[in-house]
Design brief:
Elements lengths: L14 H4 L5 H9 L4 H23 L1 H10 L5 H11 L14 H8 L3 H13 L3 E5 L7 E5 L1 H22 L4 H14 L1 H4 L1 H18 L3
Antiparallel strand pairs: 1-2
Helix pairs in contact: 2-3, 5-7, 6-7
Length: 212
């Protein structure tokens, strides 16, 4: 933290976190595992903040707001497909711009018939077009039109701008420390062994609670 963090004219950005009150049961569990009172409250606050972010992402607030301004006829699912077409990595001998309905369905984890319907919608609305594969003329691929590319660029740049503006008031040390701690924190979400142990623990608790 920089030495001027205690200046009266500089907002205490960490006081905002202390105003977030998390689940008391979680705080109690953290204390029972040896954390101090303040540390346990911080754990519960982190969980509460993450839940707020998760709910916003699940509601797709940003995407819905953007589409309401640009094209109210589009749904968030349309935007997902448009972005899936735009960010298609080359695989093996397949050119990067060759995206099929099957690719979209796999990438978004949706049924191929749904991917086909949404793809037809964005083609009809002028955001994509159907083209023949360069490798197999019998195979139909999807490619963004200039309108679709403008939409993707606008969405990406707007997201980056919002992100940058939200961190603009942080000083260098805060940003460096936050990036390091965030990466460290995210380890639990990518540690498959730990996740398997957690899943086993859930099963054990359910089994123990099962009436005999």
């Amino acid at each position: 933290m920089s030495s001027d963090d205690t200046r009266p004219d500089k907002p205490d950005r960490f006081s905002a976190l202390s105003q977030t009150h998390g689940d008391q049961d979680l705080a109690d569990l953290a204390r029972s595992n040896g954390l101090s009172e303040a540390a346990a409250d911080a754990v519960a606050a982190i969980d509460a903040v993450l839940n707020k972010v998760r709910r916003s992402i699940q509601r797709r607030d940003f995407g819905r707001l953007i589409l309401a301004r640009i094209d109210p006829s589009l749904e968030v699912s349309h935007l997902d497909v448009i972005i899936a077409i735009a960010h298609n990595p080359a695989v093996g001998d397949t050119p990067q711009d060759e995206v099929t309905v099957g690719n979209i369905a796999e990438r978004l984890g949706i049924d191929p018939s749904r991917a086909s319907r949404i793809s037809a919608d964005i083609v009809e609305r002028g955001y994509a077009l159907r083209v023949a594969s360069q490798l197999d003329a019998r195979r139909i691929c999807l490619r963004l039109t200039a309108r679709g590319e403008r939409l993707v660029t606008a969405v990406r740049q707007t997201k980056w701008r919002i992100f940058a503006e939200s961190l603009a008031q942080w000083d260098e040390q805060e940003l460096v420390t936050f990036a390091r701690l965030l990466e460290r924190f995210a380890g639990w979400a990518t540690d498959e062994a730990s996740m398997r142990r957690s899943a086993d623990a859930v099963k054990q608790m359910m089994d123990e609670a099962e009436p005999v």
